[in-house]
From TrEMBL:
Residues 701-719 have a biased composition (Gly residues). GO terms for molecular function: ATP binding. Keywords: ATP-binding, Nucleotide-binding. InterPro entries: P-loop_NTPase, YlxH/NBP35. Residues 692-719 are annotated as: Disordered. This is CobQ/CobB/MinD/ParA nucleotide binding domain-containing protein. Gene3D superfamilies: P-loop containing nucleotide triphosphate hydrolases (3.40.50.300). It comes from Streptomyces mutabilis. Pfam families: ParA. It comes from the Bacteria.
């Protein structure tokens, strides 16, 4: 076995981590701190000792969890340098562990405290951060708020009164001091045991009557001990450059820091995004290489730079590589949440960027000079937005259907790219299953543009059945009270919403109309409305405008999402496909289309829906290339048409002669009008609006609100 493998196995043998987790930790931290570091501070050791003591010797009616397969319910740990510690419970024991850790009392009249006195939790991504009131030390536990709710139920069944949802209570202070004093000498051993649960469970059966010792938890000291000598002792200094959100100059600041350190004579490894890397590396960039060496300031050090990808998908890998390349590593982390930074080298310095905000430095008085009636309508909009806040708790059938709508959208997008990828999640990965089923955990709605393809644009019903069959067993286990109802109704529910072209969190117009009326009903008695209360006529005008704005937004979404399926003739459809493909491959000179010879033979190249999807993120019209006058542009269009001539004639022989004659002029007008491919002409919009507002076809759902129905715009164009 290779040396790296022995190190990985030695860590996994005491922490319970799997091979990949242990290997990732070693690659991030090296051996400078040892393979299973102890807590660095006495305060952290005291917290960890109190946690394990509460599990090993619970007070009151609770009993210790069995040691088979876990250390009193703790299956694995990830101890890091300093005071870092993450814990994972045995599968299914999440609430059982929490009810033994979080404090409670045995009755209203008796002040016996169970669990860890003063312990509270806050949400930290996939973890609960456990800490005691008034202290900064914490332990991250892989659990969710729903596990806390289940722990509350277990607490009630045991006759306990939970204290963890209250502020610090005075009578918790005495039990807290008592346990800290009693564990003062043995805290290092209890803490080490919690950090090495796989090793500790072999001797933990004796701890009901005696304290653990460091000696019995030492393990193979030659393998686990810190190794401060050799190249690993020269660990680079790590700088994280973070931001509160995008667009505040995080990447720019990363480059400035990297160049400043290079100018000071240091060897710097910079990890930033694609755009900034191209700006920094310029002609030094090699498309075939991952790492580049931009020109450094004269007389300075050396600068190496790499991209972590457009969405940061390679950040962990590039960061690990950077630690072997520079004395200082500068990581352009951006606005990623802390949970996504777990695999990065720990920061020696974190720099945070934010927008300059004048309100932090000066006082600004805003005087609204709009007409009074306009201010009344604006006040109604603002108040309605605050009033309509849908619940994020996944507790009933309707909310569960909405969560499945959101997850099915992501599943369908994956299958559009990989039709044979039928798995919804990895059933063999407990963490992946848990994360998937924590539906809507972040409480944030989906994007309104997250709309499924049209019903005739993909085999959605087949995918819905695969999706539902895959998750049914787990759904029945997790939501037994509502799952049968959801299973029997979700496919029809999801299809109807798609026919109405609504996103998972989008509101049907009939719902919006009802909620707007409910909102307006009590306003007549309000006396604090600004600038004044709305009259009955103004309320009705506001309600009507709200529904009209909904119709406008939905109509625009239809034109965007269903562009490939708007009604048009066969020749117009083919020309729209050519428009989109020219945009995808442009701008070009005439010699740039030779590569199309093979690609145009694929069915997807000519598919209207696929061509429309290829436009995502593109700008239109195309900017002219360098030195490209009108003649050169004409030549480019003609060359493109010639490159697809043979395949176009073979596939669309009945209309190809018409396409060949008219496409160049058609495309020129499209650019002059600054319309995207597949977008309808201005003169077509009135008819499309009438069709959109017409009563729906049978089986396509009901309209509502103002008496205006709605349905998908158009069907599949002739191909």
């Amino acid at each position: 076995m290779a040396k790296a493998d022995r190190n990985t196995a030695a860590r996994a043998a005491v922490t319970g981590e799997n091979y990949a987790q242990a290997l990732s930790w070693i690659r991030s931290h090296g051996l400078l701190h040892g393979l299973a570091p102890d807590a660095a501070s006495a305060e952290q050791q005291a917290l960890e000792a109190a946690l394990l003591f509460a599990l090993a010797r619970p007070v009151g009616p609770l009993h210790p969890l069995p040691l088979s397969g876990s250390l009193f319910g703790i299956a694995k740990a990830s101890p890091g340098p300093g005071d870092e510690l993450r814990l994972w419970q045995a599968t299914g024991a999440e609430a059982e562990v929490l009810v033994r850790l979080l404090p409670g009392r045995t009755s209203e009249t008796v002040s016996t405290v169970t669990g860890v006195a003063g312990l509270r939790w806050v949400r930290d991504g996939k973890y609960l951060a456990l800490s005691r009131v008034g202290t900064s030390e914490q332990v991250l536990l892989a659990a969710q708020p729903r596990d806390v709710r289940q722990a509350g139920r277990l607490s009630a069944e045991a006759g306990l009164l939970p204290l963890w949802d209250q502020a610090g209570i005075a009578f918790e202070d005495t039990p807290r001091r008592v346990i800290d004093i009693s564990l003062a000498e043995s805290a290092p051993a209890w803490s080490r045991a919690l950090r090495r649960p796989l090793q500790a469970r072999e001797v933990a059966s004796h701890w009901a009557s005696r304290e653990p010792t460091l000696a019995e938890l030492a393990g193979d000291e030659s393998a686990l001990m810190a190794r401060p000598h050799g190249p690993v002792s020269r660990r680079p200094q790590i700088v994280h450059v973070r931001s509160t959100k995008g667009g505040v100059g995080c990447s720019t600041l990363s480059v400035q820091i990297a160049y400043g350190l290079t100018r000071a004579g240091r060897t710097v490894a910079l990890v930033t995004d694609d755009v900034m890397l191209r700006h920094v590396a310029e002609e030094a960039a090699d498309d075939a290489a991952v790492w580049h060496e931009p020109f450094a300031p004269a007389g300075g050090g050396r600068l190496l730079a790499a991209s972590h990808g457009y969405f940061g998908e390679h950040l962990d890998v590039r960061a690990a590589e950077a630690t072997g390349r520079g004395e200082v590593v500068v990581l352009d982390v951006g606005g990623r949440p802390p949970a996504e930074l777990a695999g990065l080298p720990a920061a020696d310095l974190t720099v945070l960027t934010d927008h300059y905000r004048a309100r932090d430095w000066v006082q600004v008085d805003v005087i609204d000079r709009r007409p009074e009636q306009m201010r009344v309508f604006a006040a109604l909009d603002k108040r309605f937005a605050r009033w309509w806040r849908p619940s994020t708790e996944q507790v009933d059938a309707e909310q569960l259907r909405t969560a499945l709508d959101r997850e099915f959208f992501y599943y369908a997008m994956l299958r559009l790219e990989a039709p044979d990828e039928v798995d919804v999640y990895d059933v063999d990965d407990a963490e992946d299953v848990e994360e998937w089923w924590d539906l809507g955990a972040d409480g944030s709605p989906g994007h309104p543009d997250d709309v499924l393809p049209p019903e005739d644009g993909a085999p959605l019903d087949l995918w819905r059945r695969h999706f539902l069959d895959f998750i049914t067993a787990e759904g029945q286990r997790r939501h037994p009270d509502v799952w049968d109802e959801v299973r029997d109704s979700w496919i029809a529910h999801n299809r109807l919403r798609n026919l109405q072209r609504l996103s998972a969190d989008g509101d049907a117009i009939e719902d919006l109309a009802v909620r707007a009326s409910e909102f307006l009903a009590p306003l007549a008695s309000e006396v604090d409305l600004q600038p004044r209360a709305a009259t009955v006529e103004e309320q009705e005008t506001w309600r009507t405008a709200k529904l009209m704005r909904w119709l406008d937004a939905q109509f625009n979404a239809h034109l965007r999402h269903d562009a490939a399926h708007l009604p048009r003739s066969a020749s117009e459809t083919v020309m729209a496909v050519l428009d989109a493909r020219f945009l995808t491959y442009g701008p070009h000179r005439s010699e740039g289309f030779a590569a199309l010879a093979d690609e145009v033979r694929g069915d997807e190249w000519w598919d209207a829906a696929a061509a429309a999807r290829s436009l995502d993120g593109s700008a239109f019209p195309l900017p002219p290339g360098p030195d490209q006058d009108a003649d050169v542009r004409e030549q480019g269009w003609a060359a493109f048409l010639a490159a697809v001539e043979d395949e176009g004639a073979r596939r669309h022989g009945e209309v190809w002669s018409e396409v060949r004659v008219h496409w160049v002029e058609h495309h020129r007008r499209l650019e002059q009008d600054k319309r995207e491919p597949f977008a309808p002409a201005e003169e077509e919009l009135p008819a499309l609006r009438r069709q959109f507002a017409a009563p729906p076809r049978p089986g396509h759902g009901r309209g509502g609100g103002l008496g205006l129905g709605h349905r998908p715009v158009g069907g599949r164009g002739a191909q």
